[in-house]
Amino acid sequence: MKKIVFAFAAGLLALPVLAKLPAPSDEAKAKAAEAAAKTAHAGKVDNYKLCLSMDKAAAHYFKTAAAAKKEVKPAVATPACADPGPFVPPVAAAPAAPANAAAASAPAPAAPAAPAAKDGAKKS
Q1: Contact 82, 46 (CB under 8 A)
Q2: Structural contact between residues 96 and 90, judged by C-beta atoms closer than 8 angstroms
Q3: Phi and psi at residue 2, in whole multiples of 5°?
Q4: Would residue 117 be called left, alpha or beta, if left means φ above 0 and alpha means ψ between -120 and 50 degrees?
Q5: What is the pTM of this model?
Q6: What is the 3-state secondary structure (H, E, C) of 89-113?
Q7: 18, 52, 57, 101: which one has the fewest Cβ atoms less than 10 Å from its Cβ?
């Protein structure tokens, strides 16, 4: 009997886990997009700083190796470090959508009437 009651109680406690969450609002979606953009930019900045530090370490190695008169192989050509610049938040597409929707829902201007047939062409 205790096992049945325990199983029933466990089942009741597990029901809220199965509930479906509501869809995120437009504001929440915008915040999530901005957070994703900030994270991507932070990754670019981290890669830039890593590139700079590797260049600095390599320059120091070549300088000290040359001073110690060690034989050094030539450096491998790598692309220059690209500075990602300051973070620029993504442009919100939400304000542009209603303007486009309003333009799309407005009736199109009437096409000009077809030119009238020339009177002199056929007179019977």
Answers
A1: no
A2: no
A3: -65, -35
A4: beta
A5: 0.56
A6: CCCCCCCHHHHHHHHHHCCCCCCCC
A7: 18
Question: Which of 84, 38, 80, 27 lies closest to 55, judged by CA?
Answer: 80
**Residue 98 amino acid letter:** P
> CA angle at residue 98 from 86 to 95, to 5 degrees?
20
The DSSP code for 86 is S
Angle at 73 between CA 70 and CA 77, to 5 degrees: 140
Which residue type is seen at 71?
Answer: E
Side-chain half-sphere exposure of 42, counting CA atoms within 13 A: 6
